[in-house]
Amino acid sequence: MTDEERVEPIFDNPERKGGIDNYQSMELSTARRLKKRDLDEESDTSWTEDIEEYIKTILKKCQDAEEAHNGCGYSMKTKHAFYAFPAMLIPTISAPVMGTFKDDEWAPYFGMSAMVATAIFSGFSNFFNYGSKSQMHFNFAGRYGDIVTDIEETLHKKHDRRISAHVAMRTYKMKMDSLNLSAPET
Length: 186
What we know:
The structure is a single chain. The protein is mostly helical. The chain has a domain at 54-182. 75% of the residues lie in helices and 0% in strands. The chain is built from six helices and no strands. Helix 5 (130-156) runs antiparallel to helix 6. The radius of gyration is 27 Å and the shape is rod-shaped. The relative contact order is 0.14. Keywords: Membrane, Transmembrane, Transmembrane helix.
């Protein structure tokens, strides 16, 4: 089998998804260099500079996504606290005040205002669901972090101790694409 026969089904077939030409973060020139040079019999498992550079771009994208999801997670957590705590505290404070000052003329207005404020804060908290959104962002940050750890571990190994370069490239790209498809927007 010639190199051209091996390259076509893997990379140039437009019906096959996930081929190297579909890698969004890779430049076309780098993809062409990888096609022509890196798929001969003796280099199937070798780590070239182009492949290592490409895996480092995946690493950078995963680090950026991890950082973005952590930032969104903390933002959602802050919003959750901002809306959930007043919804808890207002009734807790207003109940004894209402019981103590029930005969005063301002007490019904105070109670009504407290309940309206509680409803507003509770409504925002439940409608926007910041707590579960926060947890989801932290979950995806952790999953991107797992990919970062895997890539860094692979890159720190000696070349002869690493898994096949093409297997690593495909594995990391597929993991990142899978997370990108299911991750919430940042």
